Amino acid sequence: MFMFSKAAAVCPYCLRELKLSDMKFYCVPDEDNRHEVRRSFAEKLKGRLPVCKRRLCRNHGLTIREAVCKKCGELLPPQILFHNKFLSLCAVGVAGAGKSSYMTTLIHELRYSGLPWILQAMDVDTTRLAQMNEQYVYEERHCLRGTEAGKSPKPQLWTILDNSVKGEKIPTYALTIYDGAGEDCERIDYTPLDSKISHYLSGAKMLLIMFDPLLLSSVRVEISHDTLNASMATERQTSAPANMVSMVNSLANYIRRNCNIPPGKKINRKAAVVITKLDALNEMLNGFASGATILKESPHVQSRGFVESDSEMVDLEIRDWLTRQGETAFLGAIDANFKDVRVFGVSSFGRPPDLHKRLPKVRPHRVLDPFMWMLAAEGVIPTI
Based on CB atoms within 10 Å of each CB, which residue in 63, 248, 272, 337 is the most buried? Predict the structure, then answer.
């Protein structure tokens, strides 16, 4: 059986490119008779997956689909070999920034926004997490709890089928999403991170740097205590500037070390700076003007492409807002370390939760914008 994908496969765990020679293949007729299957010379020559050659095995002559990455030892989803393109996101940010809530609504919008894509989970863990979070947010209307610190959660593994292309074979994209704990992101330089986390940070095609505006002292004095307490995921009382600036610099230094990038050279990685919890800023007199682009509905989904002019205007508006809040050091750290930066603003829920952390009807605002930016850069959708 030939590999369907013309692109190099990517391990979703260590994010290294994979050739067939980088994988071990196993036949599993049952749990007690799992055995390794080596590719024959002919299979190597023709780029084929191996078939079981054990005569008494009930899978004799069948193509082997279970594979393990030789580099990290993780079991690979069978379909990982057959995608046209591999996409990877890694979300970082201080604790309580809303990363898990954002990822939950991002996945929901990808499924139900009207885009011609079919989203399928590659493994049981991804299915279970998505179902649990969606029920908790959309049905029970609770705020998600933060990701537990000190552990390395598994990445979410998704397949996107592009149903806009008609024919017997349609394009498919592998999507890997990593959402680590905020506490781990804050001390990148100070404690040894799990090796898996280091691979996601240094290997992801796009970093989502999540910024919680409610940590800003200038924001706290302008919004009510009720809105602040309802929207804060943690009890933290520190201000954001030092946390965010140091986190960005530590993140950049960490990536430079792992990717052998010399100091002073910008990192050639897309960095989407995502300002979360826009809904909580409506009370601010020094907030966004009523006619601001950031407050309008996103045009990207309806256009089925990335509307560059809209994104550029949003970027300018948020940069101006951050400057008025005294966050020039944060913007400077981002621009100094990353070559390709774009600023976005989102609301995962549409409105703040109540004092009991209960949600109104969830109406996400612009949560797909950063993802559409990456898709346009990868040639999946057009830039308009």
Answer: 248
Please say if the pLDDT value at position 192 is more than 60.
no
- Work out the percent of the chain whose per-residue pLDDT is above 90: 41
Q: How many CB atoms lie within 10 A of CB 333?
A: 20
Q: Answer whether CATH 3.30.750.24 is correct for domain 82-377.
A: no
Burial 154-190 (b: 16+ CB within 10 A, else e): ebbbbbbebeeeeeeeebbbbbbbbbbbbbbbbebee
Q: Which of 353, 6, 12 is nearest to 205 (CA)?
A: 12
- Do the Cβ atoms of 161 and 120 come closer than 8 Å? yes
The radius of gyration computed from the CA coordinates of the chain, to the nearest angstrom, equals 22
Tell which residue, 37, 30, 26, has the closest CA to residue 58.
30
Instruction: Give the pLDDT of residue 149.
Output: 59
**Digit-coded pLDDT (tens) for 328-346:** 998 999 999 999 999 999 9
For residue 243, pLDDT over 70 is answered with: no
H helices of 291-327, in order, are 300-303, 308-324
150: tokens are: 């000190």
Q: How much is the average pLDDT of 17-32?
A: 87
Distance CA 32, CA 44 (A): 28
Q: Where are the domains of the chain?
A: 17-70, 82-377
Q: Which two tokens stand for residue 167?
A: 């024919």
Query: Nearest to residue 348, comparing CAs of 116, 98, 135?
Result: 98
351-361, pLDDT tens digit by residue?
988 888 888 89
